[in-house]
Amino acid sequence: MIRGYCVDVTEAERPNRPRRPTLADVAARAGVSVALVSIVMRGVPGASADSRRRVMEAADELGYRPDSRARLLRSSNSRLIGVTFGVQHPFHGDLLTGLYTAAEEAGYELALSAVTPGRDEGRAVASLLQDRCEALILLGPHSPTSYLAELTTRLPVVVVARAVRHRALDVVRTADALGMHQAVDHLVALGHSRIAHIDGGRAPGTAERRRGYREALDRHGLADTAVVLPGGLTEDDGATAARALLALRQRPTAVTVFNDRCATGVLDVLHGAGLSVPRDMSVIGFDDDRLARLSHIALTTVAQDTEQLTAQAVARAVGRLDGTTAAEREVVIPPHLVVRATTGAPMQAFAETI
Amino acid sequence: MIRGYCVDVTEAERPNRPRRPTLADVAARAGVSVALVSIVMRGVPGASADSRRRVMEAADELGYRPDSRARLLRSSNSRLIGVTFGVQHPFHGDLLTGLYTAAEEAGYELALSAVTPGRDEGRAVASLLQDRCEALILLGPHSPTSYLAELTTRLPVVVVARAVRHRALDVVRTADALGMHQAVDHLVALGHSRIAHIDGGRAPGTAERRRGYREALDRHGLADTAVVLPGGLTEDDGATAARALLALRQRPTAVTVFNDRCATGVLDVLHGAGLSVPRDMSVIGFDDDRLARLSHIALTTVAQDTEQLTAQAVARAVGRLDGTTAAEREVVIPPHLVVRATTGAPMQAFAETI
DNA sequence: ATGAAAGCGCTAACAG
DNA sequence: CTGTTAGCGCTTTCAT
Which residues does the UniProt record annotate as the domain HTH lacI-type (chains A, B) (predicted)? Predict the structure, then answer.
């Protein structure tokens, strides 16, 4: 059937929105075949400069936009990577930013699916699967490893920012322990010898960061001074932990905290108790989120390298799809310490140097 | 990308991922036609209980998942609503949560497209358009109204959380002015008579909230005491404004702030200056984001009704699609005041009552 | 360089 | 209730 351009108005009554133009419309207008238009639209070689121009012109006039659904349906590979993220987690926002650029460079598109209080990870993943994603990147997933592992039988899965050990799962994460080494080394270099740690409760990464803290103290011969206080990932958790910190018999002069949000709570309580930071207490966070960068907080913190994290995550996903399978399943990205205003020499050490 | 040592594996030896099953596969396995399978999978009437069971069984065994692209391509209506959101804005996360449930109830799916520092709104919208969304919901868009208006010639557009006036645009927003009335009324009831306001700089909603502040003061006969300090949406903006506040000749006893993040910065500076909140200064924020709810902040704030906001946004979009066109283009949702710990009677008033 | 034609996986008439 | 059939808009041989 020859369908003219967008002139056929069948339903007369409703203010009918014009049907969006298709390849055929553009072809008709440019006086060429649909195949040729397809070639031009994809920017692949196989069309003369002249028809290329004519087609582009026609497409422009019609306001033509390729239909990605149809395109994807036809071509075997969708060049689509599915991403799940938590709406509650600001850090995931930073990761999304990096993922978009990394995916674009690799010639892939992203399909987003949010995990919300009313929409669990399973549903988020299911919708991605329906969209024919070729691979999945899961940001801080909390599903059981067994479920994630099962997913890999369907498509490549890359887990970001959560340490899971499974032979079928790719993991891209920050070297949490190393980050704590950097934090402790910095404090020791400043002259601190009584350094406490506030951990992350049940959050992923807690164990690893705590281990890093202990290792670092050990290396400095300070193992017996280690104090680990229960914490969590919120400001409130930090506030609670800070009170415990202040109640300690022999008060530390510095504290490393599981993350920046928690550290903010700590700072708050310290200030409230009339202590000065860093004079009376040095504080180091983890993540370098927007909170830490605020000038009036100026938190010294261990910064996760989101650019590397996201670039590697996409590289992994694409690698699996290409079949250029890397042997190593886990990519660990070193973080780096960002020194701001919440760390300094301890009062005693300062006194001694005078 | 580190593709190093891995030799390129040829098609043949690559562990070939099984092609995902199609309707035809399920049909073959169940011994019925594809049409019947389609009927069963969509859950529409027109199949016997027996074949329904057989088909479901076959689908299950094959791990069949309908291909939404193909499905959408075929049916004229995609039942897809596109949503753009800012990855920097925590409040958008809350809105997404509501949108998902509202869309589901209306029988629509959501297609998400993020606006990031490296991906502007235009691109976010373009990708949604390619995905054949039937309508667009834009969260706090910052594109010029002319661009948004032009979009409506292609499909219905609902703007959330930004006040734009245009006859072709649906807008769902909070009654910002009313919210400020509530805030000011609350402070006046507590006995405050010198109330300042810190505005939102160039952020959407700034003018409206400032207007509300002025109106409310006026109604209480306090118009001549109005003080508006330039602010913004970040903690730093709040900190800066707070310093200006403290430097004021005749210091106010209370301040309403453009949003919670900004208010947090204000609180911080106040505490740093040795002031006690609310004894020396009452503070009210706007948004009721997670920040405000933290126990050690406990910010009194004007809460936006995200549930209503999102429900109305979806209702609007669907309404335009249905042709059940509402006359009114703007839906304004009343917010409500959440009183926490940062507001109280002013010291002077308290002294007088004794 | 260009065009004709065959589907991708699915839905929606229309028969039976 | 079930099957047949014709496309949705696009890519992709395979001719010309």
Answer: 21-75
User: Is B121 in the same domain as B143?
Assistant: yes
User: Which residues of B288-344 form beta strands (DSSP E)?
Assistant: 300-303, 330-333, 336-338
Question: Which residue would you say has higher pLDDT here, B227 or A325?
Answer: B227
The residues of the protein lying within 7 Å (CB) of strand C read: A 31-36, 39, 45-48, 50-51, 70, 73-74; B 19, 22-24, 34-35, 38, 41-42, 64, 66-67, 70-71, 73-75
- Does the residue B220 lie in any domain? yes
- Which of A70, A90, A324 minimises the CB distance to B8? A324
Across the interface, which of B73, B114, B294 has its CB nearest the CB of A236?
B294
What pLDDT score was predicted for residue B348?
Answer: 65
Mean pLDDT of the region A257-278 = 91
**What would the mean pLDDT of A123-142 be, rounded to a whole number?**
94
Contacts of B94 in chain A (CB under 8 A): 87
Contact state of B63 with A154 under an 8 Å Cβ cutoff:
yes
Interface residues 50-69 of A with strand D (CB < 7 Å): 64, 66-67
Q: How far is B273 from chain A (nearest CA, A)?
A: 11
Q: How far is A2 from chain B (nearest CA, A)?
A: 19
CA distances from B159 to A242, B323, B327 (A): 43, 18, 16
The pair of three-digit structure tokens given for residue B133, joined into one six-digit string: 């969304």
Q: What is the DSSP letter of A85?
A: E
**Considering only CA atoms, which residue is closest to the C1' of nucleotide C9?**
B70
Ranges of chain B with pLDDT below 70: 1-18, 348-354
pLDDT, tens digit (0-9, with 9 covering 90-100), for A47-98: 999 999 999 999 999 999 999 889 888 887 888 999 999 998 888 999 999 9
How many domains are contained in chain A? Answer: 3
Residue B271: list chain A partners with CB under 8 A.
271-272
The answer, yes or no, to whether residue A321 has pLDDT greater than 70, is yes
The full 3-state SS of A236-284, as one line of letters, equals HHHHHHHHHHHCCCCCCCEEEECCHHHHHHHHHHHHHCCCCCCCCCEEE
Do A345 and A256 meet the contact criterion of CB atoms below 8 Å apart? no
B36 is near strand D: CB distance < 7 Å: yes
Report the DSSP pairing between strands B254-257 and B227-229.
Answer: unpaired
Q: Give the integer Cα–Cα distance in Å for A141 and A95.
A: 14
Give how far the C-alpha of residue A337 lies from the chain's centroid of Cα atoms, to the nearest Å.
19
Residue A30 belongs to domain with CATH number: 1.10.260.40
Q: Give me the pLDDT at residue B3, please.
A: 33
Q: Give yes or no: residues A342 and A193 share one domain.
A: yes
Q: In sequence order, what are the beta bridge partners of A198?
A: A229, A257
Inter-chain residue contact B114 with A114, CB threshold 8 Å? no
| Nearest residue in chain A measured CA to CA from B66 | A130
Chain A residue numbers touching B65 (CB-CB < 8 A): 126, 129-130
CB atoms within 10 A of CB A43: 8
Q: Phi and psi for B307 in degrees, rounded to 5?
A: -65, -50
Mean pLDDT of chain A: 89
How much is the pLDDT for A12? 31
State the residue for tokens 């369908």. Answer: A3
Identify the pLDDT of residue A18.
62
How far is it, in rounded angstroms, from Cα B115 to Cα A83?
15
Q: How far apart are CA B200 and CA B230, in angstroms?
A: 7
A293 CA to C16 C1', in Å?
72
Reference A326, options A311, A313, A316, A339; nearest CA is A316
Q: Is residue A84 part of a domain?
A: yes
Residues B209 and B344 in one domain: yes
What residue numbers bound the domain in which B44 lies? 11-66
Residue B349: the pLDDT is: 53
